Amino acid sequence: MEHVLIAVIAGCEIGFWIVLAAGLAARYPLRLRRTGAALLLCVPLVDLVLLAATAVDLRGGATAGTGHGLAAAYLGYSVAFGHSMVRWADERFAHRFAGGPPPRGKPKYGGARTRYEWREFGKATLATAIACGLLLAMIVLVDDPGRTEALSAWTARLGTVLAIWSIWPISHTLWPAKPKDREEDRVRRG
Predict the structure, then answer these.
(1) How far apart are the C-alpha atoms of 74 and 13, rounded to whole Å?
(2) Which parts of the chain span the membrane according to its record (predicted)?
(3) DSSP per residue, 19-83
């Protein structure tokens, strides 16, 4: 049954991008703003499908495994980063199909880059908290330590991911990137 849940996770990821693309296509190239807005509001429903599938599987007597932990991680990151991903795609569609401004990239230097890295780390922290909350909820829901042993290991995995992620904001705080001096570049080339 584990492979079915992993297939549902993959289907939800594909579904996320399909619903997002349909919403943006309706909004910009087709100029159906209300339809596009309605489709974009459906993006979080994909997460609800995964949540329901995971709960049904566990309530049906399944022993928690990799798929259940992965589902919690996916849901946590989807909730924490979903809005940013929708905004990222929206900027590109608006630029391409509606004459919008060029998409913003991440800042390259200085304090702006440091703030960006800490903001992304904050989202990762929120994602980890949501995922760990879901893992705990699954453990409580099943109420059988023998069937939920694998879920406890996922909290350590998620903590490790967050610890590794912290390298970027910490390094940008201690050693902020600086623009290369154009004069230095000319001297080196020349």
Answers:
(1) 9
(2) 6-26, 38-56, 68-86, 124-142, 154-175
(3) HHHHHHHHHTTS--HHHHHHHHHTHHHHHHHHHHHHHHHHHTTPPP-HHHHHHHHHHHHHHHHHH
> What's 181's DSSP letter?
P
Tokens of 116: 């960006």
Distance separating alpha carbons of residues 129 and 96, to the nearest angstrom: 36
**CA Rg, the chain, in Å?**
21
Amino acid letter at 29? P
Altogether, the residues listed in the chain come to a count of 190
Mean pLDDT in each 10-residue stretch from start to end of the chain (190 residues)? 86 95 96 95 93 91 92 96 95 94 93 96 98 95 91 94 98 91 57
The contacts of residue 6 (CB under 8 Å, 6+ apart) are 66, 67, 70
**91: nearest Cα among 24, 33, 36:** 24
Q: What is the dihedral of CA 61, 67, 68, 69, to 10 degrees?
A: 150
Which positions ≥6 away from 153 have C-beta within 8 Å?
69
Which tokens belong to 189?
Answer: 């080339």
